[in-house]
Amino acid sequence: MIKFPSRWELDLQSPSQRAFLAAHPAIFNRLDDAALKQIPHHPWLSVLVYALEFPETLDKKAWNMLYADLSLKETHCILCYIFEHPELIQGMDLGSADTLSIQPWGGAFHNFHQLGMDLMKKEGEFEENLVMNFSKGMARKVKKVYETETDWRDLKSTSVDFTKGKIIKVLGRTVLFQPNDSDKIFACKFLRTGESISEFCREKAMIEIFRECSRFKSRLPTPISISNPKSLPFEEFPVDVEKDQPALYVQQVEEHYYHYLHQIKDDSTWNEARKKFLFDSGLQLSLGQLPPFVELFHNEESVRKYQPLANLIPNINRGAGRLETPFLKTQYPNAGAWGARDVGDGPHLSEVVKNPTLESFDLFKLKKGKVHYLLMNGLAKLMLVDSLLLLHRLRLQERLDWKDPSLVQTVAGWLKEGQIEALCGFTQKSLDMCRAFIDQLPIDWDRQAKQIMFWVQDDEKGYPQYLDAGKLPEGLYDSKMSSVIDLKKAQNYSQGVGFLSGSDADIGCYNGPLGWIESEKSWYWISAFAVGVHICQSKDVYSINEKNLCESQKKLKLRRLSFS
Length: 564
Known about the structure:
The chain is of the alpha+beta class. The chain is built from 19 helices and 13 strands. The chain has a five-stranded antiparallel beta sheet with strand order 3-4-5-7-6, with helices on one face.
């Protein structure tokens, strides 16, 4: 039996901690005072991150042993440290998938969701305490907007004269109007039947908040007024608007504002707008707002919102799996030529914690961990929507070809840079720091690009020919992963055609998996670390020093060499 030094007596009371060191004498023998101070005032956490520096000495269950007795606060702390020292990720055995079952009630079986699952199981913090993190600074302003109700009597008359001018375009319930002898364009949005006037007021207030935020990169329209006119200024509408008590939200815009992200033809212009959308959407999430980006559904639109991180909710049956007609949903995203759009859309985190049905019918199954789940899932949705908009654009341009090596490399680069931007916006860490972290993730970006293109390409080069033959192409997945294909009872599959609902394309088999293994891996990993870093820094538990990032990485490599 190992006799522990006296300086450890107060720190190693847990049997699992002592058992870990006893099982890993090579690590224990290397420990010194410097190693115990890697995370100040946290000797045991210092031992854990020190152990991760030597992955060759850890057994397969070591990470679970390391993780077993950490409080939620300690977990956030260690995630922050690993985020700062991303080389430690190679010591974490959480990047493998075993089986992909492409059939009704099939799924993807993997272990990379375990980190997020453990985060949600931790004791030591009540949901209310975590929600309080979103009541400081700018987050407090955002939360206050959601708590404010507006009365009809508070509305003012609009200053725009709609009797003299022309209608440029009608987009849903929005009319683009240009007065005579003016170069100004106004977007006039009308309240739909059944909507609350508070939703308009919230959107206007949120735009005003983000227009004043120096971190927000997207260009936003200029709010003019929300009015309650006695009569509607336009005669015909393609949607049902409130005619008895109409409300009109007027903004000054440019016509280019209604040019959606996937409609931009030039790659460079599109990528710049996309980066702004991803960064600013991540920022919105970090402030407690849960933007919809686009409305994605699984099977039944009326009750089943799509939840990418379904594995974090045991026995979830109203999310994940295949995506129903996603390219119908991505026609009008909250992403355009200016970056993020409609910044007032979506509920607030505190609202959903109290009323889970706002986001999903299955959240009630979570006795704890709702805040972690909502933030992680929101970030995953952002990365999913980015991939869908990218694919939508390639489809429109008829460039989709998963077998083209040059295109695969280009798409892989776009995916990686996009996820770096989303992480950057959410954590508010530097681009270099976020890139250093993502560079160390066990993600095959070329394979991720191939997978997302393969499962939407339904021409003669695409997935139907392979599924009809009962096999998947070599190299699409890790060679160690097995697959099962059985589509005899699949409701949405037609031989030679692919997955459809009506005449519109689905991604994946009805009640089956999406098949984007590499994408899901990055969603789980990035979102788990991002939420840990965000909550930790908002609580001032542990301050990450970005200036020491390069020095600490060099030191880590030298230490490994000295023990080799």
